[in-house]
Design a protein that fits this description.
2 domains; Nucleotidyltransferase, domain 5; 5 strands; single chain; alpha/beta; globular; 268 residues
Amino acid sequence: MPLHFNRKDPKTFTNYQRVALIILYKRSKKSLVDFISELYESLWPKWLGLKEIPGSSTLHDWLKLFEMPVIKALHEATLKEIRPRLMAIDATGIDSWQRSRHYERRIGETIMPYAKLEAIIDTDSMLICDHVLRLKPRHDALIAKQILKRIKFKNVKILGDKGYDSEPLHKLVVGKGNKLYALVRESGRKVPRGFWRQRCLESDEDYSTRNRVESCFHAFKYRILSSLRSRINYMKRREMAWAVILYNLVTISKSIKILLRILIAYSG
């Protein structure tokens, strides 16, 4: 990412200062106006070396400035230090309601916007390695294909529930040098079709760790993002992507603090 996107206009803020302020805004869980007003009373402008404090409309424009390829590159930067051995994939619903539910019921309109997060995590570090935000109903296996195609790790076992019981998914994962274990769906056949699906009939000793993806979703919703604020679809995707980056940064900092406490305890 360049230091500045513009060449001739005034370079008051760098792109890294913009990213830092966006992440701080997402962490605050406050409105733009409240966040900017409290920024005057904090030390963050000094620590970030800001020449001036931006307005709320300027910060809102920055949210539109960074497109998804740039945000995904920032997300990949939070994953450079991990070498996953086990990964788990699952999906969870995200509240995207913007109107008053009381008046929704009064006028008889109770259609809720659809939003579902599908993510794959590292079960050891609890970091979100990749995600897709679905704004229309789609089968889990269809979206998982998009995620599994982008995996850059090798020799990883991926754990999934019955929603990912698909022979094409198994072949895709094996072709990337990994292994997928998903519970086989119940059907009238005693032996499922497909070579890789048949191998999943045997129990796996690591499958119990798949529940960590549920713990990851719980922490993500409780600490980072419980509902989407954006109304436009592309802004919803960017909001979710920034929230995933924030979650990874918080998880990494928490792991570092725990490691420092252990080192201090042993050195003492």
